[in-house]
Amino acid sequence: xSQKWSPIIDPEDLLLxxxxxxxxxxxxxxxxxxxxxxxxxxxxxxxxxxxxxDLATIGDNPAIGGRHPLPSLENFSKTLSVLGILPxxxxxxxxDKNGSNAAARLWWMLKSIGHKRVQVLNGGLQAAQKSxxxxxxxxxxxxxxxxxxxxxxQLLLADINEVEIARNNNQNIVIDVxxxxxxDGLIEPxxxxxxxxxxxxxxxxxxxxxxxxxxxSPEKLKEKYSKIIGTKKTENIIVHCGSGVTACHxxxxxxxxxxxxxxxxxxxxxxxxxxxxxxxxxxxx
Length: 285
Hints:
Blueprint: E1 8-9, H1 11-16, E2 23-27, H2 34-40, E3 42-43, E4 47-48, H3 51-54, H4 73-82, E5 90-94, H5 103-112, E6 118-121, H6 124-131, E7 135-136, E8 157-158, H7 160-166, E9 173-176, H8 180-183, E10 201-202, H9 218-229, E11 237-240, H10 247-256, E12 263-265, H11 268-272
Parallel strand pairs: 1-6, 2-4, 2-5, 5-6, 8-12, 9-10, 9-11, 11-12
Antiparallel strand pairs: 3-7
């Protein structure tokens, strides 16, 4: 029987594994200075991935696929090979935003190609440092490996047309995980229009975390999401955010709770709001 891997690892458990050479740590911080911040200080031996270049293929027009479309399977395979990752590798991913940056996105992508041994660090970089995990500013060296074999994305995906159908169907639930102010159309720091998809419900990803910035227990998360989903089938639940990144934080929370992973709408609001689709904005309420 294959081992069931928890998608979350606590910093105390990571600390116990600090001398385990089998583990590959991945730093998935984002932002303008992410690479520089990594170079200045990162968890010892961690390898860096870049959201824009490694975990997405960004086109000229966000109306096609949103701001962070998934990379091609071929490009993702090359990224993993350059990082020295094999199908058997044990990966632990972290960022500095409790998994809501690219850590959960990379976790979802790895799960979606069938990778088994992958976890996200609970509490992220700050929690690891607080626990005493060693940090480094040196350039990490590692070898690339043979091509990572990928056949397809195995987890469920939804496109813009599926969302259009789902939002008007009481057998479906469309979940928007952005902050409430963005959902309500009060602010929009990243996209052109503030608001949300009509029919979507707002469950901010931040609600997956406790006051200390750690994921709630699997039991609490299961109770929360089971009430929302009810008896609806996994394929009838669609989760989105602004560009398909922080939505993965909620998919991770659901998996941690033992709930089957719903569909991800990668294009999310960044695609929807640029395609003359119906929108609820501050002015249309």
